[in-house]
Amino acid sequence: MWCYRGGSISAEPRINDRIRVPEVRLVGPSGEQVGIVPLAKALELAQEYDLDLVEVAANARPPVCKLMDYGKFKYESAMKAREARKNQAHTVIKEMKLRPKIDPHDYDTKKGHVVRFLKQGDKVKITIMFRGREQSRPELGYRLLQRLAEDVQDLGFVESNPKQDGRNMIMVLGPHKKKTEAMAEAREAQAARKAERQGLPADAEVEDSVEEPVVEASAEEPAEA
Predict the structure, then answer these.
(1) DSSP three-state, residue 65
(2) Whether this model's pTM surpasses 0.85
(3) Are 26 and 45 a contacting pair, CB within 8 Å?
(4) Any idea what the Cα angle at residue 201 is, between residues 197 and 205, rounded to 5°?
(5) CA dihedral in degrees (200, 205, 211, 212; nearest 10)?
(6) Which residue, of 105, 162, 187, 205, is most buried by count of CB atoms within 10 Å of its CB?
(7) Which residues does the UniProt record annotate as the domain Translation initiation factor 3 N-terminal (predicted)?
(8) Is 51 in contact with 69 (CB distance < 8 Å)?
């Protein structure tokens, strides 16, 4: 019985003299089909073009190999993977805590934070905290959550309806805008501000790279006294 003992199986394709087959189906540097040729002939062509012979389909019969600059190919693949990771959307759930009898100024301040979170494409968990006799008036929290949902309805929607959780009442708002769209708009706005500082038209291209907006793991507002 065959048994694998230690070591990792490399995901790297076989190249040049690491290819161990009598013949290959060869693809030229521009993607043209050369056909089935002996391995020695394929290696000779690779040297002639100053390229590598790379096995791109090992399970084919015969294996498919392509003439390419393998170092350049690996570099470009790494850059594409890095760009994909940079643009990956990370959904974050922020949290905002309110008291049922919050005063108008504090309400406007905290609503402003909710607006900012939704514009960034993040979900927001709204928590109404009841204390003492307030627990006998859950309708106060429900009305406050309804008011907040109506005030930000252009930016978000009620993803999870208000529900009682012990001494708290919780509602979750979801953004209308996808995280990727919010990130793209943030980059455009930052580029426009940089162009303005440099005295360029707002739609001019800026050579400097634009940093990604920082995505916080959580944002929790302090509870009202």
Answers:
(1) strand
(2) no
(3) yes
(4) 90
(5) 120
(6) 162
(7) 15-84
(8) yes
* Integer CA distances (angstroms), 175 to 144, 145, 153, 167, in order: 19, 16, 9, 27
Interior/surface letters 77-92, b for 16+ CB within 10 angstroms, e for the rest: eeeeeeeeeeeeeeeb
Q: How far, CA to CA in Å, does 191 sit from each of 35, 89, 203, 206, 209?
A: 49, 20, 9, 7, 9
What average pLDDT does this structure show over 182-190?
75
Average pLDDT of span 176-196: 77
- What tokens appear for 99 in the block? 């008291």
Residue with tokens 């930052």: 190
Two tokens at 221?
């507002």
Q: Phi/psi zone of residue 186: left (φ > 0), alpha (ψ -120 to 50 degrees), beta? A: alpha
How many Å apart are CA 106 and CA 224, to the nearest integer? 9
Q: Is 65 exposed, middle or buried (0-12, 13-18, 19+ CB in 10 A)?
A: buried
What does the angle CA 186 – CA 191 – CA 192 come to, to the nearest 5 degrees?
Answer: 100
Nearest to 35 by CA among 69, 57, 64: 64
